[in-house]
Write a structure and sequence with these properties.
The complex is a heterodimer.
Chain A (H helix, E strand, L loop, with lengths): L4 H4 L10 H20 L4 H12 L5 H12 L2 H27 L4 H5 L19 H14 L4 E2 L5 E3 H4 L32 E3 L5 H9 L4 E10 L11 E11 L4 H16 L5 E8 L2 E10 L16 E10 L1 H8 L11 E8 H9 L12 H4 L4
Parallel strand pairs in A: 1-4
Antiparallel strand pairs in A: 2-3, 4-5, 5-9, 6-7, 7-8, 8-9
Helix pairs in contact in A: 2-5, 3-5, 4-5, 7-12, 9-11
Chain B lengths: L1 E3 H7 L7 H9 L4 E7 L6 E6 L10 H12 L21 E3 L5 E10 L15 H8 L6 H13 L4 E4 L7 E5 L5 E3 L5 E3 L5 E4 L4 E4 L3 E2 L12 E8 L1 H10 L5 H8 L6 H13 L4 E10 L1 H5 L7 E4 H8 L10 H10 L3 E4 H9 L9 E5 L10 H12 L21 H13 L3 E2 L5 E2 L1 H7 L19 E2 L4 H13 L5 E12 L4 E12 L1 E2 L9 E2 L2 H13 L6 E4 L12 E11 L2 E9 L1 H6 L7 E6 H4 L18 E10 L4 H11 L4 E10 L8 E10 L8 H18 L1 E3 L2
Parallel strand pairs in B: 4-7, 18-21
Antiparallel strand pairs in B: 1-3, 2-3, 5-13, 5-14, 6-13, 7-10, 8-9, 10-11, 11-12, 15-17, 16-17, 19-20, 21-22, 22-28, 23-24, 25-26, 26-27, 27-28, 29-31, 29-32, 30-31
The chains are: A alpha+beta, B alpha+beta.
Chain lengths: 373, 714
């Protein structure tokens, strides 16, 4: 730096005003402006650039117009003016570009965070796997025209056993199998209160209130006097179904359950039916589905058989219709027919979600329940 | 139960399938083969069977052979054993006194027998081989004989030492105080309802359950009485239960034995015993009770119509389907007699070719007491024909599908709690009497169980709170510190005569917010976090009034499980909807819980009476809202509720929102004072607010909160 007043000026003096000299001088200025704009690294630098080039008092363009234009001979003024305007456009463009670019990368880098840290999660509540499974089953049957029916968990012997055609001395009636309310011994057998052992009593409660046709599914909690182990629990859930109308046949039962199993477990699932025995249906059947794990080839889950037993069903026993006919005479077994089916929800849920201990459903363990969110 | 295919094939030499196929075909017809074990060349297989209790007739080799014959349409030889001529002797005296419980009693006297190792008994029965393959121990000819009859035809028999019998046999009920030492060596005092086989002096055995010690066969026995009888299922079950006994014999009699099997079974036992020497004396004694014979072996024929078979069973895969021939073949093979009524009438009129309306009178086999009605016959036809040969059809339906009236409300409650981060849980239906007393809304109406699973599960839960506390404790004790659980379940109240059930909701929480964060400080959950959840649940329903209140401790109204000063009653439409708050420190300590636990219960039967709130859109103002904050100082006794109602009472339409923005204790204030920042928002739907009206409203706010007990901070 010198004290020469010229050196304070930001543009050199021009000695020649011919076309070539003007081109060279303006090109040098434009290159300087570009370099200077490229170095802009934040809002402050943008302002500095603006002052350096476009400042009214000290800006370089003011210098150019002040010094070069004034010094130029009259014949060169027009040519110089054109070049001046072109340079101004370039500088203004650079300024506009620089102002829109926001903070520089360096400034942004200073704000870096560790994106690999885990996200801040809020607990998401989950549906209980039993509720989820119940709802799935109910909606499959809703699509087949089944409404939902429910009934009390504390039942009378009449609804739980007698009207379901259990004979008086049937082993299921024993307190070894059924949980009973205290002090029932002196009451008439049919009035004795117990914890329902299946959701079947709702079949009778529904028929008593409603003449045929009936199509209901009955989800609910049931109880048995069972010691708890990996697959047994004194508390469990069932979905029962009942369909009564004229001309309901065993092949309709087969078709309905085949469809339902495909809807629940996938369209490639096959069903097969075995004779079985339940007091309230005849003919009765157990239904197996082709193993959902191995597709029927045989694996550990299906004990190499390729099949998994899933539900019980059958044609409603005429004796059950006879009980219903006590209140609804339209349940005449000679005129109507129907089928019923029932399935254990825990068993299905255990299969679907790979749960190994039935007790986990009732422990309220956050770690277990959280898996179903 | 174990079945040898070698033994089956002895009756069915023409059986066209191998053991694996046979097992599958049986299983698909309800005679389930659970396991097949190859016994080596020439020995066939051992089947492990699982046969339902109604098919007790098939729990033996001949019974399974009958099923096989029906499936493949093979002839099955009848069982018959020629016995040597009896030597003359007095007819043995047998009397059935208990005619309600013993239907038939046969007895045969054998003299001069040798008790010892079984010989290779009689032609056709490869006993030693069968016992060997079944791993059935050979004990003595007397024991082996009854075991063989059992394995062959499932008929229990009993052999007495004849010389221990005084007079003759009486089948009767026991007398009070009578004693009997049974074969298991236990001396039993008999109940007057026990059905026993006795002689003229003393009890000899529990009828159909177990023989007596004193009259059993010993190596010294020379003379034997062979019993083969029919006892009533109920009588045998009661006797067996009373004495805690379950034997092969009781198993069969409880499920219904074959009234006509005794004679053949007695002949089998006799043949085997006589193979070691001895002779029959006197005539075969066969005492029957006609009333019982009439309801077992000589039942009235049952009418069966082919049209009914079709009405119940529907469509088959096979085009031909189930014909009259199918019915006749299947039922005939199972031992039924079929008399085709319709066809004989039609034959007479020359229309015999049309058999769709065939009708039969069917006589029932004595061994199938489970067959009684037309539907039972239809089941047999379907079963032997093969369930999987029926088509999969779907019937039409014309009615709508009805949801439960409360289904939408229940779904709304569940969804709200899940959205608040609560997992749904399901707890036990039972609780201890102590927990019930603590949590029951009506302590006098707790229902005890007659045979509880344990003392901790002695009563029907009157509230979901005990179960919720147990689940929360379970988590905290396993070091799971963030707990958010809810349960929708049934609660019970009433008496042992009449039990009422109601739906309820319980929720519980412990831990911090946010639940998982590396970066942000967590804070403990508190009362107001849970209150927010309660408010969310309530907001799903239409209600004109809702408030939370607290009762003075002396009123004794707050449930004992709640902290009396950190809990609230939920009241909506003037009704108590439930309670919630911090768990009483006493109860927390009793459950070894160090963390603050928040818990509550809502009576859903009451909540479900309110309609679900239907979302409705309102216009959102395009004009700028104006917010004003007021820094207030209040006496400690002035609750927010007072400020809130004062603001409510202003009823300024443009006053669209007010809330407590911040609450703080400040040492610069008086000892019984606190500061509150009240944020107030004004907005008009149709215009920008003017300064003068804002001034006016602010003055009104200051005046109103002033009257409520607040002053502006200077």
């Amino acid at each position: 730096m010198t004290n020469d007043p010229i050196s304070n000026l930001t543009v050199p003096s021009l000695t020649s005003f011919d076309e070539a000299a003007l081109d060279k001088a303006f090109a040098a200025l434009a290159a300087q402006a570009r370099d200077s704009a490229a170095a802009i690294d934040g809002p402050e630098a943008v302002e500095a650039f603006r002052l350096e080039w476009l400042g009214r008092k000290q800006g370089r363009l003011t210098d150019v117009s002040g010094k070069w234009l004034k010094a130029a001979p009259a014949e060169a003024k027009k040519s110089l003016g054109q070049r001046f305007n072109a340079l101004k456009t370039v500088v203004e463009g650079l300024l506009e570009q620089a102002s829109g670019s926001g903070p520089s990368d360096a400034a942004l880098a200073a704000e870096a965070i560790d994106i690999t840290l885990p996200g801040t999660r809020r607990l998401t509540g989950s549906e209980h796997p039993i509720t989820k499974t119940l709802n799935e089953i109910v909606s499959v049957f809703a699509a087949l025209g089944y409404s939902v029916g429910v009934g009390p968990e504390v039942e009378t012997d009449y609804y739980n056993f007698e009207s379901m055609n259990f004979p008086p001395g049937h082993p299921a009636r024993d307190t070894q199998d059924t949980l009973v309310v205290a002090n029932q011994e002196r009451r008439p057998l049919r009035d004795r209160l117990l914890l329902r052992t299946h959701t079947s009593p709702v079949q009778m409660r529904t028929m008593e209130l409603q003449p045929p046709p009936v199509r209901i599914v009955i989800p609910g909690k049931v109880h048995r006097n069972d010691a708890a182990d990996a697959t047994h629990s004194p508390i469990f859930h069932q979905v029962e179904g009942l369909c009564v109308d004229t001309n309901i046949t065993f092949s309709d039962l087969k078709g309905t359950l085949d469809h339902a199993m495909k809807a629940l477990f996938g369209s490639s699932v096959k069903t097969r039916f075995f004779p079985s025995f339940f007091p309230f249906t005849e003919p009765s059947a157990d239904v197996q589905i082709s193993c959902i794990f191995c597709g029927g080839k045989g694996c550990r889950k299906c004990k190499q058989s390729g099949w998994i037993e899933l539900l019980g069903c059958g044609m409603v026993d005429p004796a059950v219709f006879a009980f219903a006919a006590e209140k609804q005479p339209t349940y005449d077994p000679k005129k109507i027919s129907g089928f019923a089916f029932g399935m254990g929800v825990e068993r299905i849920a255990m299969m679907k979600y790979g749960v190994s201990e039935i007790g986990q459903f009732y422990a309220g363990d956050m770690r277990f329940l959280g898996q179903f969110a | 139960m174990k079945i040898l295919t070698k033994w089956l094939r002895a009756y069915l030499p023409g059986l066209p399938v191998d053991d694996a196929q046979l097992a599958e075909d049986l299983t698909l017809r309800g005679i389930a083969v659970e396991g097949i074990y190859d016994l080596g060349a020439g020995n066939g297989s051992l089947y492990e069977m699982d046969i339902t209790t109604n098919r007790v007739d098939a729990m033996n080799h001949y019974g399974v052979a009958r099923e096989v014959a029906a499936i493949y349409g093979l002839p099955l030889p009848t069982l018959s054993y020629a016995l040597p001529e009896a030597k003359p002797g007095a007819k043995f005296d047998v009397k059935i006194e208990a005619e309600d419980a013993c239907g038939r009693f046969t007895a045969r006297v054998l003299r001069g027998v040798n008790i010892g190792e079984s010989r290779n008994w009689f032609a056709g029965a490869e006993v030693a081989t069968y016992f060997g393959l079944l791993e059935q121990k050979k004990i003595s000819n007397a024991v082996d004989a009854t075991n063989f009859a059992w394995l062959l035809m499932g008929q229990p028999t009993h052999a007495f030492d004849l010389d221990k019998i005084e007079g003759g046999i009486v089948v009767r009920r026991a007398r009070k105080g009578e004693k009997l030492k049974t074969l298991d060596g236990i001396e039993r005092t008999l109940d007057p309802e026990d059905l026993i086989v006795a002689d003229h002096v003393k009890p000899l055995g529990l009828a159909g359950v177990m023989g007596g010690w004193d009259s059993m066969i010993t190596p010294a026995t020379k003379n034997v009485l062979v019993e083969a009888a029919w006892f009533d299922p109920m009588a045998v079950r009661r006797t067996a239960r009373r004495h805690g006994l379950h034997t092969d014999a009781s198993h069969r009699f409880e499920r219904g034995a074959d009234f006509n099997a005794g004679e053949t079974a007695s002949a089998i036992v006799t043949s085997i015993l006589l193979a070691n020497g001895g002779h029959i004396e006197g005539e075969f004694v066969d005492v029957r009770v006609p009333a019982i014979e009439a309801r077992t072996a000589k039942r009235k024929p049952v009418a069966l119509a082919l049209s009914e078979v079709h009405r119940i069973l529907g469509t088959t895969v096979d085009k031909e389907g189930i014909t009259a021939e199918t019915v006749e073949k299947v039922l005939g093979a199972l031992g039924c007699g079929l008399k085709n009524q319709q066809v004989s009438a039609l034959r007479a009129s020359g229309l015999a070719s049309q058999r769709e309306d065939s009708e039969w009178q069917v006589t029932l086999p004595s061994w199938r007491l489970d067959i009684e009605r037309e539907i039972d016959l239809i089941e047999e036809v379907a079963r032997v024909y093969g369930y999987n040969r029926f088509a999969n059809t779907l019937h039409a339906f014309g009615e709508g599908v009805k949801a439960l009236p409360w289904a939408a409300a229940e779904a709304a409650v569940r969804a709200t709690l899940r959205a608040a981060g609560f997992h749904e849980a399901i707890a036990s239906t039972f609780c201890s009497a102590a927990d019930a007393a603590l949590a029951a809304p009506q302590p006098g109406l707790i229902v005890p169980l007659g045979n509880p699973l344990s003392e901790e599960a002695g009563v029907l839960r009157p509230s979901l709170v005990p179960g919720m506390l147990a689940m929360i404790a379970g988590n905290l004790h396993r070091d799971v510190s963030d707990v958010r659980l809810f349960e929708l379940g049934t609660v019970f109240s009433g008496t042992t005569e009449k039990v009422e059930e109601r739906p309820a909701l319980a929720f519980g929480a412990a831990g911090t917010l946010p639940e998982q964060s590396t970066l942000h400080p967590a804070r403990d959950l508190d009362f107001h976090d849970v209150k927010g959840v309660v408010e969310h649940v309530l907001s799903r329903f239409e209600m004109s009034s809702v408030y939370f209140d607290r009762f003075p401790a002396e009123a004794g109204l707050t449930p004992a499980w709640l902290h009396p000063y950190r809990s609230a009653r939920i009241a909506a439409e003037g009704t108590t909807m439930g309670w919630f708050g911090q768990l009483h420190p006493r109860e927390a300590a009793a459950r070894k819980l160090k963390d603050v636990v928040l818990v509550g219960e809502i009576y859903l039967d009451r909540l479900y009476k309110l309609p679900i709130r239907k979302p409705a859109a309102r216009e959102i103002s395009r004009f700028q809202p104006v917010r004003r904050d007021f820094s207030l100082v209040l006496g400690a006794e002035v609750a927010w509720e007072k400020i809130d109602s004062a603001m409510q009472a202003l009823a300024i339409p443009e006053l669209v929102d007010w809330r407590a923005r911040e609450l703080f204790r400040d040492p610069k204030l008086g000892a019984n004072e606190y500061a509150l920042l009240l944020g107030v928002t004004f907005q008009a739907p149709d215009r920008t607010l003017r300064d003068d009206e804002l001034q006016e409203w602010q003055a009104q706010v200051v005046e109103a909160v002033g009257k409520a007990g607040a002053r502006l901070r200077g």
